[in-house]
Fold:
Amino acid sequence: MQTEMTSCGLCPRACGIDRTQGAHGVCGETATVRLARAALHFWEEPCISGSAGSGTVFLTGCQLRCVYCQNQPIAHGSVGKAVTLDRLVDIFFELAQKGANNINLVTPDHFIPQIAQAIRMARARGLTLPFVYNTGSYVTVEALRLLDGLIDIYLPDLKYLDAAHASDYSGAADYPQVAKAALQEMHRQVGTPVFADVAGEEEPMLRRGMIVRHLLLPGALEDAKRIVTYIYETYADDVYMSLMSQYTPSQAVAGHPLLRRKVRRKDYEALVDEAIRLGVEHAFIQEGSAADESFIPAFDYEGV
Structure:
């Protein structure tokens, strides 16, 4: 762990900061893991949350910091409590005792070495739940390889194939090629989706595999169609897609005119129609007015 953190290059920004000495990387974090919440979460895809809930662990900090981020308090580091690796492992077990279907690590890329160590510790203590890795996909292949054999389910975003959008909204013009490479590595590690019956759940739950998420942004329908096409042509039915319409504008997007409104229903329907036209069968879609619902929990240190 010390090697990766002394000159940090876990993400493509490669800030080279020695986070082990208390310096903050571009992600905003030192080598000390900080959490904002650890609790059951019921708004992931049905095969992740089920009726019992996903044991989500929200980690503080983020190397992308998208202007439209719905989790800005934790992404920008204003909310976060330091925990030891022993405490992190205890949290995994506490979520398991609450009936969680899995342990779901949210925005984890900048803590990959610590997460790898914590998973090994948890497995050594007998934890059998699947680990879900919930990421924005702006992470190096080399960093992801530290997780090989440890993660059961990858839940990555593919935010953009348009470099201009990536630059304007996330300050990362290289996002498309970085994310493509990251998805390839994730898929190499977990392979074809595997479902299993779980006690108390009416439908089979995902136990291994990958679901690629895309959040449709206002004015970005054509890029979204390219993303769906890319995923399907690259992975076919070997991954699931999750097409989301829940984008909600905030004050933070005041300088981005296209982002000041919600996604038009007709645009989301056009995206779904494109997926159907391509022959996509393994996909989750959102019905109704998802943007009017709250998928954002309170970052109040519950469970930390």
Observations:
- The beta strands are 34-41, 54-59, 81-82, 103-106, 131-135, 153-156, 194-196, 205-215, 240-244, 283-285.
- Residues 175-190 form the longest helix (16 residues).
- The radius of gyration is 18 Å.
- The chain has a mean pLDDT of 94.
